[in-house]
Specification:
mainly alpha
């Protein structure tokens, strides 16, 4: 009778292709931080870690778009729909990011 294998820990892992240099650096930093804290990322969680990194990047881009739109348009009423849409997208991405961070154990609250 064979026993099921335990999930593999990720000690050395190269970031997935398709990530930007900044995303790859963030990926490596998160792996190192998790290993240092005694909670290494397991193989099944790698996709979730990538989603977390991509979501954080999306928030940065959406915030830049929102700031640019607010600077560009002194007439808030003309672009109100787009600004509100960006705000909703930022909120949704932030909520997803917090959820993924909690599930991965990378948030400040889950470290306590």
């Amino acid at each position: 009778m064979t026993t099921p294998e335990a999930p593999q820990n990720i000690d050395v892992l190269t970031p997935p292709t398709g990530m930007t240099r900044a995303e790859k650096n963030h990926f490596i930093r998160l792996l190192e931080a998790q290993n240092a804290s005694g909670r290494p990322v397991k193989a099944p969680d790698v996709d979730m870690l990538c989603d977390y990194i991509f979501t954080r990047g999306r928030i940065v881009v959406l915030r830049k778009m929102l700031r640019a739109e607010l600077r560009k348009n002194s007439d808030f009423a003309a672009s109100k729909g787009f600004i509100l849409s960006l705000s909703r997208e930022i909120g949704a991405a932030t909520k997803l990011s917090i959820s993924l961070a909690d599930r991965l154990g990378v948030s400040a609250e889950s470290r306590a």
